[in-house]
Amino acid sequence: MFDFSSDLMSINDTTIILRLVLSLLLGGVIGFERGRAGRPAGLRTHILVCLGSTLAIMTNQYVFQEYGVSDPTRMAAQVISGIGFLGAGTIIVTGRHQVKGLTTAAGLWATACMGLAIGIGFYKAAIVACILIAFATVVLHRLDNFMLSKSKVLDVYIEIGNSASITAILDTMKSFMVTIDSIEMVKPTYGTNAAAAAILTLRLKQKRIRLDILARICSIDGIEFAEEI
After folding, report:
1. Stated pTM of the model
2. CA-to-CA distance for 215 and 202, rounded, in angstroms?
3. Which of 7, 72, 107, 141 is the most exposed place for a label (fewest CB within 10 A)?
4. How many folded domains does the chain comprise?
5. Alpha carbon distance 123, 89 (integer Å)
6. Cα 30 to the chain's mean position, in Å?
């Protein structure tokens, strides 16, 4: 039989159910957005992370409450450090040296911390944190893309054909009123006819549409493939 109580700070039947249900709901809010964005760590992963961290800190509090021993913060520290292994699994470096998955990894870490707050009864902070995490991943993502579209710095991955001269290609790029800040030679990823590939950091001298610059780069003789990274 369940023995419900109005004491929401100690471990009892009421807080066990409340905290686990709340962690499911708040973890699901964050995971839903990540899943909709097509990320590998989506709804179920974020819910499980939040539930697991909530259960961990509740267990620690239960041991301390019932037996009067154990450090009530020890398990929380282990959760925060341990979640790094899960977050690292969502970060990948592509063949073109692109780093992807940082936002998802940070979201998992923040979700684990949110679960710890729920598990210890810090309800207000957990709810506010859920709202702010959702704001950062949804609204600020659009702001980030807007700021990127206005940037004068453009990173471009290009693949160069066998018959092309990279010097001639770079000279042609300079005629587009861009400055080449850096060049990194990498292994071709897509084109079977590509003899070489490079990652270029371009600095635009004029405010131009980034797609227009990419279209002009693609039109250069010898460029087999080009994309912004």
Report:
1. 0.66
2. 14
3. 7
4. 2
5. 29
6. 12
